[in-house]
Specification:
The structure is a single chain. The chain is an alpha/beta fold and about 375 residues long. The chain has two domains: about 270 residues, Zn peptidases (Aminopeptidase); about 110 residues, 2-Layer Sandwich (Alpha-Beta Plaits). The protein is about 35% helix and about 25% strand. Strands 1, 2, 3, 4, 5, 6, 13, 14 and 15 form a nine-stranded mixed beta sheet that branches. The protein is elongated.
Length: about 375
């Protein structure tokens, strides 16, 4: 299965992946998933935005759901998301090899736009599926080309998770904890609160050559000092803070012109919600102070904010403890966090990433560790199906 996915959406130049939702690469992966589900006799259900669950219909009662997502960030790695989907299908195979007959339905799910890399809202698909946001809330979201979400998919309400009793997501680890612990598999205790804030810095467009330095209202200066402030504030709060300006848009973006506007997106994460609020407030305060000095202005808009998540220990702990799997928090957002926040009991398993790098072509997992992850996921699912 992994060989089937490897070439889809991959850049020959960088080795990274571009699998944005509702584009050809992601739709190809969705078609692949449907074929894999059909080959296993699973019954596929899809909602109005493309979230999909393939059900192994067996037994009665609330279903056990596993799976992840197939979309990627821009120039992302191969494992973030797809590893969870492939491992879920492989876990179904392992359960059948073990002779397991579920007493409850077992589903393999694929959520759309988990990364939020196209329309800006992380876990958009799972938020819609859980009812955390409505279609009316998101249909007007636009991508970088100005294309509205409502123009690429019909959308609407979703009842896809109505019969789901719990969710278990496997994911490649996006840090080095399992490398340092020398463990192939780990269990997530929870997710740090995190979010994305858009900073719009407005100045005055002018000629780069004829405008004296003292006459300028340059928003790039305000943004640059704000980026340095974010770095400083996060380091002051270390090890409990992360702050990153990873996306920047400049208008009119001319080499010989002073910009009129800089839009920059702050990704901030902390171990607690008060610490996160304090970090964003400190960065905003310094941005405003610098804007006054530069003769510019700044507007801050919260675009996607998620609170702290604590996963349900009864799901994975009975399997993890006797096997000695380490338990660790994660600073990355996941669909499991969206389901947990909506009241669906959830758990996460991590597979070791020897590079410790994610959202990059360097993201990796060794096949032996991936197979260990499949066995671990099958163990947790078997326990959950009892």
């Amino acid at each position: 299965m992994w060989a089937d996915l490897a070439p889809v959406g991959r850049s020959a130049a960088t080795g990274g992946y571009l699998r944005q939702p509702w584009t050809s690469a992601e739709l190809e992966l969705r078609a692949w998933f449907a074929e894999q589900a059909a080959s296993r006799g699973l019954v596929v259900e899809t909602d109005a935005v493309g979230n999909t669950v393939a059900w192994w219909e067996s037994g009665r009662g609330p279903g056990v759901l596993t799976g992840s997502h197939l979309d990627s960030v821009v120039d992302g790695g191969a494992y973030d998301g797809p590893l969870g989907v492939v491992s879920a299908l492989a876990a179904v195979d392992r359960l059948r090899e073990r002779g397991v007959v579920p007493t409850r339905p077992l589903g393999v799910g694929v959520f759309v736009e988990e990364e939020g890399s196209r329309f800006g809202l992380a876990c958009l698909g799972s938020r819609l599926a859980t009812g955390a946001v409505s279609w009316a809330d998101v249909e007007g979201l636009a991508d970088r080309d100005g294309v509205r979400l409502g123009d690429v998919v019909e959308g609407g309400s979703s009842s896809l998770l109505a019969d789901v009793g719990c969710f278990v997501e496997l994911h490649v680890e996006q840090g080095r904890a399992l490398v340092d612990l020398d463990a192939p598999v780990g269990v997530a205790s929870g997710i740090w609160p995190h979010g994305r804030w858009r900073f719009d810095f407005d100045g005055t467009a002018d000629h780069a050559g004829t405008t004296r330095m003292e006459d300028r209202a340059d928003p790039v200066l305000t943004f640059s000092m704000t980026a340095l402030a974010a770095n400083k504030q996060a380091r002051l709060a270390a090890p409990d803070a992360r702050a990153t300006f990873g996306r920047v848009e400049v208008a009119p973006n001319g080499t010989n012109a002073i910009p009129s506007r800089v839009s920059a997106w702050l990704d901030a994460r902390c171990s607690s919600e008060p610490a996160l609020a304090a970090l964003v407030a400190a960065v905003t305060e310094q941005a405003v102070a610098r804007a006054e000095r530069d003769g510019t202005s700044v507007t801050v808009t919260a675009e996607s904010v998620s609170g702290a998540v604590s996963f349900d220990p009864w799901l994975a702990d009975p399997v993890a403890r006797p096997r000695g799997w380490p338990v660790l928090p994660t600073q990355a957002g996941h669909d499991a966090g969206a389901l947990s926040a909506a009241g669906v009991p959830s758990a996460m398993l991590f597979v070791r990433n020897p590079t410790g790098v994610s959202h990059s072509p360097a993201e990796h997992a060794e096949m032996g560790d991936c197979l260990a992850g499949v066995e671990a996921l099958a163990d947790v699912l078997e326990e959950s199906l009892r």
